[in-house]
């Protein structure tokens, strides 16, 4: 797929989606959010894809919403549509059958930080920076708060939200916002290796696991165990689980059918 705002490249089961508004730090205009959502919908039906990487072009990952566009419209209905569109995009990432990795360089602020927090995994350059700075301009980052408060401990989330200050990559790693830090020159390779490991797995198994992870998080302990016990039964009955177990017993490489 080639789009003026979003570029897609597929390689060995990994779809890399590059936000392509470098002059605006890849800020999430309405058009970019719609393009990204549409591409994720296409990936949901593409059984050849087993992992997605979201990255930014130019000097940074994503600077959040396009405030110039929003201020230019200046109408309540447009504001509502913008935030509903963003909420739908983030939920699409969560509901996608395959894991999503955020590849972060430069800055990830406001809805850009929300995008990092929403992704299943995040790998960042060791000089990247993160913030939810809405409070500084009178616009509290309430929708980024939804993802952030689910990705890190409450007090860490509140500190970011209340101060609006930038934190460095090391701090983002310490609070659990990102999984790994690497030198910026190694970022592409590090993400490719991680995505490749994931893409080597059964798509069906990844889907079952991701969906179960999201579902059990909101359940009380006993209900979570009950739900995941049923997921294990469902998983055991799949063709890929039977193949994988047989391959393990017989010391051979499994041949996935993604069923």
Automatic annotation (TrEMBL):
Domain of life (superkingdom): Bacteria
Gene3D superfamilies in UniProt: 2-enoyl-CoA Hydratase, Chain A, domain 1, Lyase 2-enoyl-coa Hydratase, Chain A, domain 2
Regions crossing the membrane: none
CDD domains: crotonase-like
Keywords on record: Fatty acid metabolism, Lipid metabolism, Transit peptide
InterPro entries for the chain: ClpP/crotonase-like_dom_sf, Enoyl-CoA_hydra/iso, Enoyl-CoA_hydra_C, Mitochondrial_ECH-domain
GO biological process, any: fatty acid metabolic process
Molecular function as annotated in GO: hydro-lyase activity
Membership in a protein family: Belongs to the enoyl-CoA hydratase/isomerase family.
The protein's role, per its UniProt record: May play a role in fatty acid biosynthesis and insulin sensitivity.
Protein name: Enoyl-CoA hydratase domain-containing protein 3, mitochondrial
């Amino acid at each position: 797929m080639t789009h003026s705002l979003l570029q897609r490249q597929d390689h060995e089961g990994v779809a890399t989606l590059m936000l392509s508004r470098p002059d605006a730090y890849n800020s999430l205009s309405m058009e970019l959010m719609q393009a990204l959502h549409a591409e994720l919908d296409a990936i949901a039906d593409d059984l050849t894809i087993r992992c997605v990487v979201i990255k930014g072009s130019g000097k940074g990952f994503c600077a959040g919403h396009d405030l110039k566009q929003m201020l230019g419209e200046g109408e309540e209905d447009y504001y509502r549509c913008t935030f509903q569109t963003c909420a739908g995009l983030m939920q699409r990432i969560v509901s996608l059958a395959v894991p999503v990795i955020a590849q972060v360089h430069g800055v990830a602020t406001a809805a850009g930080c929300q995008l990092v927090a929403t992704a299943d995994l995040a790998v960042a350059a060791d000089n990247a920076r993160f913030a939810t700075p809405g409070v500084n301009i009178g616009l509290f980052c309430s929708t980024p708060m939804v993802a952030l408060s689910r990705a890190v401990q409450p007090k860490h989330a509140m500190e970011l939200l209340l101060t609006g200050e930038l934190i460095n990559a090391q701090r983002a790693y310490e609070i659990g916002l990102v999984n790994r830090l690497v030198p910026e020159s190694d970022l592409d390779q590090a993400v490719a290796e991680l995505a490749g490991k994931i893409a080597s797995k059964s798509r069906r198994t990844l889907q079952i696991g991701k969906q179960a992870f999201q579902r059990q998080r909101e359940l009380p302990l006993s209900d979570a165990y009950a739900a995941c016990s049923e997921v294990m039964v469902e998983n055991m009955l799949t063709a890929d689980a039977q193949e994988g177990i047989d391959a393990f017993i017989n010391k051979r490489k499994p041949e996935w059918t993604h069923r």
